[in-house]
Design brief:
Layout: E1 9-13, H1 18-29, E2 33-38, H2 41-50, E3 55-59, H3 65-79, E4 84-87, H4 102-130, E5 133-137, H5 150-170, E6 176-182, H6 196-207, H7 214-225, E7 235-238
Parallel strand pairs: 1-2, 1-4, 2-3, 4-5, 5-6, 6-7
This protein binds NADPH dihydro-nicotinamide-adenine-dinucleotide phosphate (NDP).
NADPH dihydro-nicotinamide-adenine-dinucleotide phosphate binds at residues 13-20, 38-40, 60-63, 88-92, 111-112, 137, 139, 182, 184-185, 187-189.
């Protein structure tokens, strides 16, 4: 039997669009008090107006360790605790390795990988106190790397490695670690790709199938975080039915 999230406090990073926004709204609908972080605070303000429950808006850059720390402190100050961290903020600046603009590599590693590590580091004392949950939004790219997606995949493989080590370190203290690996979801993620060939490839791929919607991933998050305490859903891989690779 599942529990609701009444009385629980959740922090969702990258909640200004896509999966993070849908997840914040779904968790709010389940009764959680939700802190939402991203750089575009105006988008977070409109999310807060739509959400059924209490929402704390946090201007957050996950690549900045101080900003991450401040977001966790502000969440605990406002709501008194932290039960669930949803590490969702991410960028996908795909392109071939040869001739790449390596500043895009830095952005991906700093946002997707280091950013999620900083958030775990800052949140962990609170999660240990509440026997909470770390939920990592990884990707199918965390299991299978493809040409043009090497650095993005490296960040997502890194999340898997970090998450398994974290799981072994904290599971006996009651903290659960969940890795969710979505296939193609209709969001603005691919719109930031600068390589025209890879961007067109992503757009064609989206047009060729019934993609997942952000709400499909939000439903998986709700499933994972509403299990009884002795059940640790450690990994969920979700692809569109139409996605063969
Ligand atoms: P979106 O582009 O819609 O969302 C990305 C979110 O991350 C935005 O809210 C953005 O907010 C935030 N973000 C980016 N950089 C930072 C930063 N430095 N600090 C704080 N927030 C940041 O894409 P999705 O919803 O698709 O992506 C969410 C996650 O899902 C990512 O980790 C992505 O890798 C993963 N994913 C997506 C898939 C897909 O097909 N769409 C498939 C598999 C995984 P802002 O710009 O306001 O800071």
């Amino acid at each position: 039997m599942s529990n609701t999230l009444e009385g629980k406090v959740v922090l969702v990073t990258g909640a200004s669009s896509g999966i993070g926004e849908a997840t914040a709204l779904a968790l709010s609908a389940e009764g959680a008090r939700v802190a939402v972080g991203a750089r575009r605070a105006d988008r977070l303000e409109s999310l807060a107006r739509k959400a059924p429950g209490e929402v704390l808006v946090l201007e957050l850059d996950v690549s900045d360790q101080e900003s991450v720390r401040a977001a966790v402190v502000a969440t605990v100050e406002r709501f008194g605790a932290l039960d669930v961290l949803v590490n969702n903020a991410g960028v996908m600046l795909s392109g071939p390795i040869a001739g790449a603009d390596t500043t895009e590599w830095t952005r991906m590693v700093e946002t997707n990988l280091l950013g999620s590590m900083y958030a775990v580091h800052a949140a962990l004392p609170h999660l240990l106190e509440r026997k909470g949950t770390v939920l990592q939004i990884s990707s199918t790219s965390g299991r299978i790397a493809t040409a043009g997606g090497g650095v993005y995949a490296a960040t997502k493989f890194g999340i898997t490695a970090f998450s398994e080590a974290l799981r072994q370190e904290v599971t006996e203290q009651g903290v659960r670690v969940v890795v969710i690996e979505p296939g193609f979801v209709a969001t603005e993620l691919a719109s930031h790709i600068t390589d025209p060939t890879i961007k067109a490839f992503a757009q064609n791929m989206a047009a060729s199938m019934r993609t997942l919607q952000p709400e499909d991933i939000a439903n998986a998050v709700v499933y994972a975080v509403t299990q009884p305490e002795h059940v640790a859903v450690n990994e969920i891989l979700i692809r569109p039915t139409d996605q063969a690779r």
